[in-house]
Specification:
The chain is mainly alpha-helical. The protein has 11 helices and 3 strands. The protein has a 3-stranded antiparallel β-sheet with strand order 1-2-3. β1 and β2 form a beta hairpin.
Length: about 250
């Protein structure tokens, strides 16, 4: 398989036949709206946010917090991290550690900034195909494209269960939500105090002010594409069912 990010194309051999597809077709096969990501942030072109910027995502007052661990994260950053590593930023290894561009993903979502999920996924695929020691995490996504391009009409016996982060974690569900971003205080002024650092690390993207609701951050209308909106709806339903059973 060859991935040409400069042309947004994929090409592969299946038997004696050669197939090609665009990134748009890859997105369609996996129920993503690639048009939604137009003119959005390219995660591969920005540096990892600084440790100081990461501190804002942890609960205030928690003792013995180590920046870089998932323990102690605020409610929404914790959910974002878990969704990311089981959807478009798949990984193995220590689940208690947050590394590399996971911080950028958390940062952008919390500040309502769009980033290009499809291009980022394809760049990961281009790296993984040269790595003989890492699992090919995106195999189901690749297979969905192959089935679409080969016009497969047979029975697909593999079904993927919907993902609901922290579905069985009672302690996580009853945690009080920490409003974010905060109004006033050192964290809210972070973008001003370190504005030049943000431009350097985040490609000059402006951080808009997001008014937190009483129960936490609420994404604006149209923030999620249809695929992730379905995940969010399933998540909200699980929260409602959990509340009824308490």
């Amino acid at each position: 398989m060859e991935i040409r990010t400069d042309k947004d194309e994929i090409e592969w051999m299946f038997g004696k036949r050669r197939y090609n597809a665009t990134f748009d077709e890859f997105a369609e096969a996996n129920e993503l709206d690639n048009g939604f990501f137009a003119n959005s942030i390219n995660l591969d072109e920005e540096e990892i946010i600084s440790e100081e910027q990461r501190r804002q995502f942890y609960e205030p007052g928690e003792q013995n917090i180590s920046v870089g661990e998932s323990r102690g994260l605020k409610h929404h950053p914790a959910a974002i991290n878990k969704i990311a590593r089981l959807t478009f930023m798949l990984k193995g290894g220590d689940r208690g550690k947050i590394r590399f561009k996971y911080w950028n993903v958390i940062h952008h979502i919390m500040y309502s900034q769009k980033f290009d999920v499809v291009t980022f996924t394809m760049n990961q695929l281009a790296i993984l195909k040269h790595d003989m020691t890492t699992n090919l995490y995106f195999a189901p996504y690749i297979m969905s494209l192959i089935l679409q391009k080969t016009r497969f009409n047979g029975e697909c016996r593999v079904q993927h269960e919907p993902f609901r982060p922290f579905l069985n974690d009672r302690e996580f569900h009853i945690r009080a939500l920490t409003p974010f971003p905060p109004i006033g205080g050192a964290e809210a002024g972070h973008g001003q105090d370190h504005g030049h650092g943000h431009d350097e690390h985040m490609g000059g993207a402006n951080i808009p002010h997001v008014e937190p609701e009483a129960h936490g951050w609420v994404p604006p209308a149209g923030y999620f594409d249809p695929y992730f909106q379905g995940i969010q709806n399933s998540w909200n339903t699980s929260f409602a069912q959990f509340g009824q059973n308490m």
